[in-house]
Amino acid sequence: MTGRDWFAPARPGLVIGTGQRQQNAPALATLLDCLARGLPVHASQHGIRAAGPDPAPLLCCQSSGSGGRVKTIRRRHASWIASFEVTRGAFGIGPGDSYAVLGQLGHSLSLFATVEALHLGARLNVLAGDSPRSQIGQMATTSVIYATPAQLHRLQLAGTPGALPMVTHVFCGGGKLDDACRAGTAALCPNATIREFYGTSETSFITLADGDTPPGSVGRAYPGVDLRLDPAGRIAVASPYLFEGYDEPALPLPARQGDHLVTGDIGWLDGAGHLFLRGRESRMITVADRNLFLEDVESAMLAAGAGLCAAVAVPDPARGHAVVAIVEGAGDDALAARLRRACRGALGDHAAPRRILFVPRLPQLASGKADLAAITAMVLARA
C-alpha cells in the first residue's frame, strides 16, 4: 500500500461539521472508518458502506442519473488521488483550507470533494440537506467549494453580495455555468477564483476553465488528459482518471477508440485547444428536419434571465419533436415571451418552446442536476 494507490486521510480529525441534518454524520463516520481500515467504499443515495471485507483500493459511487439511469461507478483510488495531487500542486490547496460540500455523499462530485479534503488534510463541512441559507451561515471559514451550477444559484438566492469573503476557490461541474450564475457567484464570493470543469462520472476531469477561458468554452484539457474529437465532434478521452467499469454487470460499457473512452458528448475545439460543448448526443433532437441540442435551448433561456430551467422534447407528428421548457418560479407571461424570443433569435424558429411551464421548484437529482426524467414525465402528464 502506498500513498499513490490508497486514499490516505492526512488529518481526518479535522471534520468541523456535518450539517444540521443527522444523516450526514453516519455516512461520514462510515467513510472515515473504511478509509482508516483500508476497506473498499460503496457510496449511493442510501448512504455509505464498506463494499467488502477484504482491503482493496476500490471505490464505488453513483452517477448523477441525468442520462436517465443511475449507474454505479467502480474506480481505483489512484484515479482520484492523481487529481488530488493536481489540486495540491496547481492551486496550493492543503491543510490550511476548509471545504464545504453541499451535495449528498452518495454522488460522485460530493464524494470526490470530501475525500480530497481528507486526503489533503483540509477541514471539512458536509452541508448536504441543509437549506441554502443555513449552508451560507455555516460557511464563514470556508475557502473551497465544489458545487453544481444549480447549487451555486440557490446559494446566490439565499445570500447577499460579499457573504462568503473567505472563499478562494470555487470548482463548478455537473452542468454549464452560465454567465449570470458566474457573475452571481463572483459577487457572493468576491475573493474566489471560479473554475468550471467538464467531466463525467466515468472520466472524472476532462477540461478546466478559468478567467482566461473564452466565453462559452469549458476550458482546455485538464493536466494528464488527452482529448480527441472525431469528425462528427464526438468527444473521447484518455487519462489516468478513467473508471474501471460499472458495478452492474449487465450495463454496456462506453465505447472505446483505442485507449480513449467515448463520453457521449458532442463538441468542438478552437485553435488554442479550448473545448466548446454542443451537448449530449442523446439530447439532440430533430424539429422540422433540423437538428437541435436541448442544451442550446437551455443556454439561450439562461442568457435571457430564466434562472433555473430545463428543456425537454415531446413527440410531434408533424415536426418530429416539439420543445417544452420548464422554469422555476411563479408564472410570468412577459418572461415566457422573452424566453421564446431569445430561443428564436439565437437558434431559429424551430427552437422556440411550444410551451413554457412554471413550477415552484425544478425537480432535481441528489447531485443537484435537473431531473430530466421526472421533468419529462411531468410535461407528458400535463399534455
TL;DR?
This protein has 383 residues and is α/β, with parallel strands linked by helices. Helices cover 27% and strands 29% of the residues. The protein has helices at 24-37, 77-91, 108-120, 132-137, 149-158, 179-188, 294-303, 333-347, 372-381; strands at 15-17, 41-44, 47-50, 58-62, 72-76, 98-101, 123-126, 144-147, 169-172, 193-200, 204-208, 220-221, 226-229, 234-238, 245-246, 256-257, 260-269, 275-280, 284-287, 290-293, 309-316, 320-328, 355-359.
Features:
383 residues; alpha/beta; Rossmann fold; 2 domains; 8-stranded mixed beta sheet; 27% helix
Description of the molecule:
The chain has 383 residues and is of the alpha/beta class. The chain has two domains: 15-278, ANL, N-terminal domain (Rossmann fold); 288-381, ANL, C-terminal domain (GMP Synthetase, Chain A, domain 3, 2-Layer Sandwich). Helices cover 27% and strands 29% of the residues. The protein has nine helices and 23 strands. The chain has helices spanning 24-37, 77-91, 108-120, 132-137, 149-158, 179-188, 294-303, 333-347, 372-381; strands at residues 15-17, 41-44, 47-50, 58-62, 72-76, 98-101, 123-126, 144-147, 169-172, 193-200, 204-208, 220-221, 226-229, 234-238, 245-246, 256-257, 260-269, 275-280, 284-287, 290-293, 309-316, 320-328, 355-359. The strands form five sheets. An eight-stranded mixed sheet has the order 1-7-6-8-9-10-11-12. Strands 3-2-4-5-15 form a five-stranded mixed sheet. Strand 19 (284-287) and strand 20 (290-293) form a beta hairpin. The radius of gyration is 21 Å and the shape is globular. The chain starts with 14 loop residues before the first strand and ends with a helix. 45% of the residues are buried.
